Amino acid sequence: MFKLGITGGIGSGKTTAAKYFEDIGAKIFNADKEAKKHLKNTSSLQHKIINAFGEAVTENNKLSIKKLAEVAFSSKIEQEILNGLMWPEVFILIENKIKEYEAQKNKLFILDAAMIFEGNFEHILDSTLLISSKKEIRIKRALKRRNLHLEQIQNRMSLQMIEADKKKCADYIIENNGILEDFHESLKKYHKSLPI
Ligand code: ATP
Hints:
The chain is α/β, with parallel strands linked by helices and about 200 residues long. The protein has helices at about 15-25, 30-40, 45-55, 65-70, 75-105, 135-145, 150-160, 165-170, 180-195, and strands at about 1-5, 25-30, 60, 60-65, 110, 125-130, 170-175. It has a five-stranded parallel β-sheet with strand order 2-5-1-6-7, sandwiched between helices. Strands 3-4 form a two-stranded antiparallel ribbon. The chain starts with a strand and ends with a helix.
């Protein structure tokens, strides 16, 4: 099974790319979605997080995901503390999924994650694909989703690894600044180049 990591900044088109591969049979692990699900279902992790951040992340003595997001995205330090608690557990989830999909003889596994290089997740992958888009376009796409304000989007962007550094780390880069049809065409060409 070929293990591919798809990464990129907020609104770059990672999940759109992952969906393209899912539609042609790949197995997808969306790190953000799976990490949130794991946190909701794992009280030991919730307690570790409450111990680290205190009352700033609780409501009625329970972990509030909304408050946690506010705290974790307030500064690099807070984000690193949260990542230090979350990532080892997410890493195990990814490894287990890889084993499961490998046993089922799947051909392509995709890790869809914004922070592949920051978390050193590339070491368990065969290759990495960076989806790169201009900042203004990414902001417009993220605003359209309506779950975050401009300031929150810009703040989250400022906490992500800068694009130039991601480009140095990635095995392959696809630009996604045009229409969806062009993006799909680039993904199709890239898929053909994979050794699967
Ligand atoms: P995030 O990290 O914020 O979850 P992402 O990198 O996974 O973002 P997507 O969710 O794939 O990005 O894309 C963000 C939004 O932009 C989606 O609504 C998607 O449909 C849209 N989008 C992506 N690429 C294009 C494109 N080339 N043309 C038009 N819309 C696009």
